[in-house]
Amino acid sequence: MRPILQPSLVNGPFADPALFVDVLFERRARPLTLFGPAGFIEHAGHRLASYTWNLVENYGFALQEAMHVNVWPNRLAELGLVPGAWLRDAKRAFIADAPDDTPLTARWREGDKLREKRLSLGTLRQAAMQCVPGQKIACVSDVACHADNLQGIIRLVADADLLLIEATFLECDAAEARRKNHLTARQAGSIARDSRVREIVPFHFSPRYADCEAALLREARASFPGVTP
Ligand SMILES: [Zn+2]
Fold it and tell me: 111 in the Ramachandran plot: left (φ > 0), alpha (ψ -120 to 50) or beta?
């Protein structure tokens, strides 16, 4: 299934940090939880009324899709059912933890005939539905690697599917990184490892490494193998 959150960097890895997140609504509204700094929620609220933002000042933000329901089409067919708008209500009932005996009416068109079938949520749930944790993406930049910051960052980005994280300096320039409120590539990798994220995209590289970008990536990879590119 195509992830509904499609993040991409607006600028190259050496330019100003800016992230664009495309939210695909091809399956209509799904609950989502988003995390981030003050003002961000109001800003995004109108467009993303069904989402919750979680933003942490000075760290970055995380977007978390609450839960989503997978439906197996072949098992649906075995029950003699055809997907339709009714399935959306069924998913909603499932996510809301409605009791198994909640009645459902499946309706769909077959040619010019309207077909209808009654069943319980429990029947559908057991046969054809699965609730899975939603996608989580996070972004961290312009932070200093102090112990109290680190805890906040790790809590924010924990278990993200994708983390875009600054890797501004090499570890040999760690003192300067700290002074300028930036992470080294090694620190970025350690954060990724300690927060059990699946994949990171390092960015916001200092221009001083313009001819040795590979060294930054290599350093991040030394503490965390899931580095893209
Ligand atoms: Zn910066």
Answer: left
